[in-house]
Design goal:
By secondary structure, the protein is of the alpha+beta class. It has 6 helices and 7 strands. Helices cover 34% and strands 27% of the residues. The radius of gyration is 15 Å and the shape is globular.
């Protein structure tokens, strides 16, 4: 079941020339603490996303609502990026990060609509079998959102930058969670 809010989202590739300053504001905002870029300067953010753009196994996208940027989404191949050696990747695994733009006027249900739209976007690719996430173990808000769209935690893992909760969501788990 999709919501009217979710249906208003579109996704486009990140354009660093056009989006760098906006992205910098988002990732350095206090609400983006788990993005771990609080102290980043604009050139740091540009460098990070240029590396993503240049990489074969990592992509970044902006989510738009009525043409306005409202979230950042990253898709990556966990067999090559982020989780190499931390779990046994399977064919069809797709890693995901998402960040909702900070706002002074929160809309109830907005972040859940965003993660649902992100998951629909990822599962629109028939090659995607399951989505893999590795949020900080302390990020209980995102754990609840992940669970709401069908993610099942497997275990804690130690990444270089954080202790993370490795979780998975198959297409079937997602469809069951969002149709309930």
């Amino acid at each position: 079941m999709s919501t009217a809010l979710e249906e208003t989202f579109t996704v486009r590739p990140l354009d660093l020339v056009e989006d760098a300053e906006l992205l910098h504001r988002w990732v350095t905002h206090p609400k983006a603490a788990f993005w771990m870029m609080q102290e980043a300067k604009l050139p740091d953010v540009e460098r990070e996303y240029m590396a993503i753009a240049a990489g074969e196994h990592h992509d970044a996208f902006l989510g738009l609502r009525d043409g306005e940027p409202v979230f950042l989404m990253e898709r990556y191949d966990p067999a090559h990026v982020e989780l190499v050696g931390l779990y046994e990747a399977r064919p069809g695994d797709v890693g995901m990060h998402f960040l909702v733009a900070p706002t002074d006027t929160p809309v109830h249900g907005f972040t859940r609509a965003v993660i649902t739209a992100v998951m629909r976007h990822l599962f629109a690719d028939p090659a995607t079998v399951r989505v893999v996430v590795e949020p900080d173990v302390r990020n209980t808000a995102v754990h609840a959102l992940n669970e709401a769209v069908g993610f099942v935690p497997e275990r804690e893992i130690q990444k270089p930058e954080k202790k993370a909760l490795l979780s998975f969501c198959t297409r079937e788990q997602f469809e069951k969670a969002v149709s309930a």
